[in-house]
Amino acid sequence: MSDTTAITTFEVKLPEVPLTKFERERRAFYRLLPELLQTHRGQYVAIHDEQVVDCGPVRADVVFRALDRVRSDIFVGLVNEKPEPVARSGVRRVLDDRKAKR
Fold first, then answer.
1. What is the dihedral of CA 57, 63, 69, 75, to 10 degrees?
2. What residues form DSSP beta bridges with 51?
3. What residue ranges do the domains of the chain occupy?
4. Of the candidates 68, 33, 35, which has an alpha carbon nearest to the alpha carbon of residue 53?
5. Residues 6+ apart with CB under 8 A from 40
6. Which of 9, 17, 32, 40 is the most exposed place for a label (fewest CB within 10 A)?
7. How confident is the model at residue 77 (pLDDT cuts 50, 70, 90)?
């Protein structure tokens, strides 16, 4: 007699979490990157509504000009083949143990 085991499989579909506006703009930056490398190489570009709204060599200048113009979430990235290095603010936050024990 043959011992066979039937395995029941099922598919689980979780609801998709909608992307934030910032994440949509970030994805647009990487989608546009091949074109941007030809037109804005070495510059920072601000993306709003999946389009370039400002550019320049100094990140802070691009951020402030773009925010003055659109007053909304934007993504600012460096147009380069290599990924931008991770920047840390240097600010550290100390968590209070007393609050965690409540």
1. 100
2. 48
3. 21-78
4. 68
5. 52, 55, 79
6. 9
7. very high
